[in-house]
Amino acid sequence: MDLVVNGTEHSVELDPRTTLLDALRDHLGLTGAKKGCDHGQCGACTVLLDGRRVNSCLILTVTLSESEITTIEGVDHPVQEKFLEHDGFQCGYCTPGQICSAVGMLDEAAKGWPSAVGDPELTDAEIRERMSGNLCRCGAYPNMVPAIREAAGR
């Protein structure tokens, strides 16, 4: 099967039950996306699929032949610099997923997609709501929120 990951086409032979996360880590050597819960509950495996954020542990790779996949290794976005400036990480395990999710979330907000809070402005509460699918066991949220806010230009 052919996959386009970070702008590069890869041919891989996979079991049809292989998740995107396992294909990335075990077959392509892209270890930025982490295996946290392996149940889609923590967000450590978040990547961008055709520009939208997804939990790669829940997607079967066999369904992605026409898709563009972007992992943390392929992200080039101001949110990365802002995470560094604001010390938006501690142990770093969740950071790739947090950054991929923030990039996707900022794009969703720019397109006017609603959230549960429903605030059209990216307030701190809105950022927290939109990032709620990504967990940080270290509790670096107080530094992530201003990093994301600044990356959004606010």
UniProtKB/TrEMBL annotation:
Organism the protein comes from: Paractinoplanes aksuensis
UniProt entry tagged with the keyword Iron: yes
InterPro entries for this protein: 2Fe-2S-bd (IPR002888), 2Fe-2S-bd_dom_sf (IPR036884), 2Fe-2S_ferredoxin-like_sf (IPR036010), 2Fe-2S_ferredoxin-type (IPR001041), 2Fe2S_fd_BS (IPR006058), Aldehyde_Oxdr_Iron-Sulfur (IPR052914), Beta-grasp_dom_sf (IPR012675)
2Fe-2S ferredoxin-type domain: residues covered: 1-75
UniProt keywords, alphabetically: Iron, Metal-binding, Oxidoreductase
The keyword Metal-binding belongs to this UniProt entry's keyword annotation: yes
UniProt-recorded name of the protein: 2Fe-2S iron-sulfur cluster-binding protein
Any single Pfam family the record assigns to this protein: Fer2_2
Gene3D superfamilies hit by this protein: 3.10.20.30, [2Fe-2S]-binding domain
